[in-house]
Amino acid sequence: MSIALRLALNLPRDAATVPMARRMLDQALRTLGVEPACRDDVGLILTEACANVIEHARETDDYEITIEVTELRCVIHVINAGSVIDPARLVLATRMSDGELASLDLGLLDEHGRGLHIIRALADELYLTPALTGGLVLQAVTTLRWTQDAAVWQRR
Fold first, then answer.
1. Contact 60, 54 (CB under 8 A)
2. Are 142 and 41 within 8 A, CB to CB?
3. pTM for the whole thing?
4. Pick from 17-21, 62-66, 90-94: least confident
5. Measured between alpha carbons, how far is 72 from 86 in angstroms, rounded to an integer?
6. What are the tens digits of pLDDT across the range 63-80?
7. CB–CB of 109/128 below 8 Å?
């Protein structure tokens, strides 16, 4: 038996939605048996992605989150219809090697540039693309680690 979970949320662009979305995701991952440290990483990825929308997508009143969980990975999409951030920042955040990222002095960046670097450091894959209606789609992919109690889900 394999698992598949899909969460979809349409939320107002309000800071109060960020911890609520994180708690919903954490509860779902805990119920399925994802390791606590892995849940923390995935939760921080979601928090940073949502916080970026709250901070930067000023031309929109809402945003969308979709989360897809399989027995191998978690894929988070955060979509907003606001303005796209500077393409140079997107390249910096998504195309650095792990070594370049590890050696980066985050103190040289302004405080608004760190969220993408945190996501990049925690996710296995990070993609930032223009949304069809304007704005930005952030996709973060993370390999899941399971507790021994989750072994029942791993059977086929």
1. no
2. yes
3. 0.81
4. 90-94
5. 33
6. 999 999 999 999 999 998
7. no
Q: How far apart are CA 155 and CA 87, in angstroms?
A: 43
Residue 111 confidence class, pLDDT cut points 50, 70, 90: very low
Domains, the chain, ordered by start: 4-154 (3.30.565.10)
Alpha-helical (H) ranges within the chain are 17-32, 36-56, 87-95, 98-103, 114-122, 151-154
d(CA 73, CA 143): 4
- Measure the CA–CA gap between 136 and 133, rounded to whole angstroms: 9
Q: How many CA atoms lie within 13 A of 122 on its CB side?
A: 25
- Cβ–Cβ under 8 Å, residues 84 and 130: yes
Q: Are 39 and 30 in contact (CB under 8 A)?
A: yes
Per-residue pLDDT at 62 exceeds 80: yes
Owner of token pair 């990483």: 41
Q: Spell out the residues 6+ positions from residue 95 whose beta carbon is closer than 8 angstroms to its own.
A: none
Q: What angle do CA 128, 20, 117 make, to 5 degrees?
A: 30
CA-nearest of 136, 145, 146 to 115 is 136
